[in-house]
């Protein structure tokens, strides 16, 4: 394929020197033997106009071998072009050298820094040899980004046109080579090795780190690989920066791209070769975690950012597309850190302005997460507080409270307490995390801040938020809890996400004072309103209603309610959410009563673990959850565990003034334990005639209802007698009772 006219003029203007290269002979027997280029003779050196040859790079000792990649390259004899594109420090040249050592073909290395001064057409035969005697070879153009793009394009086009069978061209570059890769890709004539291929896996990274003197456990290595995205030189420089520290693992977990070693490398190897306008664009967009044309236009107050991003993608592979259309990008995490440090160093006065513009753009486009994050990074606590307070219900009820805690950690306690909406958001976030003390602290701070200054969300919203905190914490007793919840409910508009929470609190207050019917009505309404937007509140409403059903001995309704709550928790990913402890407790009690021992034990463990996170939390909440877990433990024959839970519940119940239901629950539990103690003294011999009659049916697959029908008694009678059998045999389930009865000789063989 002849070059275009522009290329012809370029070639005519250059000296007709032979293309500088070095030819490597094929391997003889062992492909792993390192082959060196032939030595120049005295005659060669004396030839007029002869160009210096470039030696092939030697594989340095100690480098981590890339066996999988080398095998892929050496085994691709049908491929005509190999393109290796990656930023500096990804081991492109090392990979080429290792490939040359393991491939039997002759390797010809071209020097990119001298391509501009040669006659390319006359050098093709020098590379491949005479037309009638061309063997298999691999022509390597390493560091292609150092040569003029037009020269590289014309050279590669000519070489591809003259490529003999079994030969291939390998191009490595920090930027995209000037070739029609789309066409070659469609013809399956191309192998591409890019950043994801060159990024190190934990096993490779471990070997590299070991060579720096660091012996690290797998978890630490995996975390560092995630942080560096497997970038080999990033791993190496991170190791250098921390290896003298006492806590190496801790230091590695805090590695950032603005570390001196890494930032210096980025300045020398990446930023220094970029045009000034691209450098400025890269530095100023470092405030964004994702970059798109419209967003960058808004933040930089310019036009044409989409084209600039495309240029940057070609020039710096550290800018990665995140969508198939290459319209949205992100910087390599460490490089973004370094760019951010450069922004703070060169234009600190712009940092807050850029964050404010980004926040406004995200807010206008409905991306609340990123809008809040930009306000937080810009230290705009007023805007951050307004945005966070508006959305706090969604965050704390949908299992996303950890994000909120991360944002709050960016401010001091004094800063949070100085602005009422932010302080209220913090109070509710700490409540959801089970930290009632911090919640009270920020509630008091919010009240004080509101008194000093009207919040941007208006005094009505602040009053409603304070009333909500008062209702949840319940320091004025059950009566005050209900009144505060009702006041907050009335202050909020009909479509407010706070209303389901208020309904749950009002319903709970009514239940605690003995008004079951009124409580069920409000809890049902709260469960319906929160179903789409606040799943954790849905689960709490259902759990509280199940507790009422248990009190009324309506075990079928309790099972239906707790199963619904369990589905919500599972589907919405709330299984580790501390505030859901009450739902697990209600489910454990119900399933234990129904003989679903395995499920009950699992829920019991989950409930206890979540309560451990919560600590004492809110007294009425802790008392309710522990009472339910204690009853589950009793039905699972764990008397010791039940006693412990009841003791803790009793202590918390005494701090809940106005609650009348706890006494009934405690009486039932202690009576049950007394009866259990009496029957345990006699064991199987204490079984009554009626209980022995029920025992005969337990090995069958008949339900309690079917057994009751055959015996002519109610299903509830059968269930009561069956559980008496379980207690006296020391069994937690029907199958265990059958096993113990068989061992005791109470069942025929």
Q: What class do helices, strands and sheet pairing give? A: mainly alpha
**Straight-line N-to-C gap:** 92 Å
What count of helical segments does DSSP give?
39
**Overall pLDDT confidence:** 84
* Largest sheet descriptor: 6 strands, mixed
Can you give the helix content as a percent range? 55-70%
Strand residue content: under 5%
- The best one-word shape is elongated
Question: Low-confidence segments, ≥5 residues, pLDDT <50?
Answer: 1-55
Query: How many E strands?
Result: 9
Tell me the strand order in the biggest sheet.
Answer: 1-3-4-5-2-6
Rg over C-alpha atoms, rounded to the nearest angstrom: 37 Å
Q: Layout of helices and strands, plus pairs?
A:
Elements: H1 5-12, E1 21-23, H2 42-46, H3 67-74, E2 81-85, H4 92-101, E3 106-110, H5 120-128, E4 137-141, H6 149-161, E5 168-173, H7 181-186, E6 190-193, H8 195-198, H9 202-211, H10 218-228, H11 232-242, H12 248-253, H13 260-269, H14 276-284, E7 291-292, H15 293-300, H16 305-315, E8 319-321, E9 328-331, H17 333-346, H18 351-364, H19 368-377, H20 381-397, H21 401-408, H22 413-417, H23 420-432, H24 436-452, H25 459-473, H26 477-491, H27 499-512, H28 516-530, H29 535-551, H30 555-571, H31 581-593, H32 597-614, H33 619-635, H34 639-653, H35 661-682, H36 689-697, H37 704-711, H38 715-729, H39 734-743
Parallel strand pairs: 2-5, 2-6, 3-4, 4-5
Antiparallel strand pairs: 1-3, 7-9, 8-9
């Amino acid at each position: 394929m002849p070059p275009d006219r522009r290329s012809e003029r370029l070639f005519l203007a250059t000296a007709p020197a032979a293309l500088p290269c070095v030819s490597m002979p094929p391997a003889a027997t062992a492909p792993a033997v390192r082959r060196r280029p032939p030595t120049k003779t005295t005659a060669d050196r004396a030839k007029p106009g002869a160009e210096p040859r470039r030696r092939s790079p030697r594989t340095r000792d100690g480098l981590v071998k890339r066996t999988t990649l080398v095998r892929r390259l050496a085994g691709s004899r049908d491929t005509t072009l190999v393109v290796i594109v990656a930023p500096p420090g990804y081991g492109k040249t090392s990979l080429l050298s290792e490939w040359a050592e393991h491939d039997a073909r002759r390797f010809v290395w071209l020097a990119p820094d001298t391509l501009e001064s040669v006659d390319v057409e006359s050098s093709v035969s020098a590379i491949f040899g005479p037309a009638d005697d061309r063997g298999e070879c691999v022509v390597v153009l390493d560091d292609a980004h150092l040569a003029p793009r037009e020269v590289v394009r014309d050279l590669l086009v000519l070489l591809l046109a003259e490529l003999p069978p079994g030969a291939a061209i390998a191009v490595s570059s920090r930027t995209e080579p000037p070739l029609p890769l789309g066409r070659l890709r469609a013809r399956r004539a191309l192998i591409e090795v890019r950043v994801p291929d060159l990024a190190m896996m934990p096993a490779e990274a471990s070997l590299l780190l070991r060579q720096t003197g660091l012996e690290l456990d797998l978890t630490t290595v995996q975390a560092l690989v995630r942080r560096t995205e497997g970038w080999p030189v990033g791993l190496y420089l991170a190791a250098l920066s921390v290896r003298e520290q006492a806590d190496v693992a801790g230091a590695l977990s805090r590695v950032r791209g603005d570390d001196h070693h890494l930032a210096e490398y980025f300045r020398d190897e990446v930023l220094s070769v970029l045009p000034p306008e691209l450098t400025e664009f890269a530095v100023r967009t470092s405030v964004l975690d994702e970059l798109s044309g419209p967003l960058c236009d808004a933040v930089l107050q310019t036009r044409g950012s989409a084209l600039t991003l495309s240029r940057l993608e070609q020039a710096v592979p550290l800018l990665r597309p995140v969508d198939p259309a290459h319209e949205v990008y992100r910087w390599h995490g460490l490089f973004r850190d370094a760019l951010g440090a450069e922004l703070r160093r060169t234009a600190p006065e712009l940092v807050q302005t850029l964050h404010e513009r980004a926040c406004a753009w995200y807010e206008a486009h409905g991306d609340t997460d990123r809008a809040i994050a930009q306000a937080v990074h810009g230290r705009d606590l007023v805007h951050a507080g307004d945005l966070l307070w508006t959305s706090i219900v969604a965050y704390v009820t949908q299992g996303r409270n950890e994000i909120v805690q991360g944002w709050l950690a960016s401010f001091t306690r004094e800063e949070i307490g100085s602005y009422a909406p932010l302080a209220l958001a913090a109070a509710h976030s700490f409540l959801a995390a089970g930290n009632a003390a911090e919640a009270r602290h920020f509630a008091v701070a919010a009240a004080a801040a509101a008194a000093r200054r009207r919040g941007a969300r208006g005094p009505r919203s602040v009053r409603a938020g304070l009333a909500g905190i008062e209702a949840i914490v319940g320091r004025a007793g059950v009566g005050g809890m209900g009144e505060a919840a009702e006041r907050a409910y009335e202050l909020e508009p009909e479509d407010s996400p706070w209303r389901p929470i208020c309904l749950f609190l009002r319903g709970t207050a009514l239940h605690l004072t003995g008004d079951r019917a009124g409580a069920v009505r409000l809890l049902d309404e709260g469960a319906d309103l929160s179903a789409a937007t606040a799943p954790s509140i849905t689960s709490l409403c259902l759990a509280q209603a199940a507790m009422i059903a248990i009190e009324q001995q309506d075990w079928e309704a309790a099972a239906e309610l707790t199963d619904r709550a369990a589905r919500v928790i599972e589907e919405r990913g709330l299984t580790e959410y501390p505030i859901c402890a009450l739902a697990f407790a209600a489910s454990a009690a119900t399933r234990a009563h129904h003989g679903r021992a395995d499920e009950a034990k699992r829920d019991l463990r989950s409930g206890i673990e979540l309560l451990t996170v919560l600590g004492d939390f809110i007294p009425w909440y802790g008392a309710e959850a522990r009472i339910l877990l204690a009853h589950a433990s009793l039905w699972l024959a764990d008397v010791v565990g039940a006693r412990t839970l009841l003791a803790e519940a009793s202590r918390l119940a005494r701090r809940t003034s106005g609650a009348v239901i706890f006494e009934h629950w405690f009486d039932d539990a202690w009576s049950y334990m007394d009866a259990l103690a009496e029957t345990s003294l006699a064991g199987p011999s204490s079984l009554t005639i009626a209980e022995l009659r029920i025992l005969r049916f337990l090995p069958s697959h008949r339900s309690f209802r079917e057994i009751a029908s055959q015996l002519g008694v109610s299903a509830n009678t059968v269930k009561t007698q069956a559980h008496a059998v379980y207690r006296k045999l020391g069994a937690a389930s029907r199958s265990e009772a059958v096993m113990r009865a068989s061992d005791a000789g109470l069942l025929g063989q």
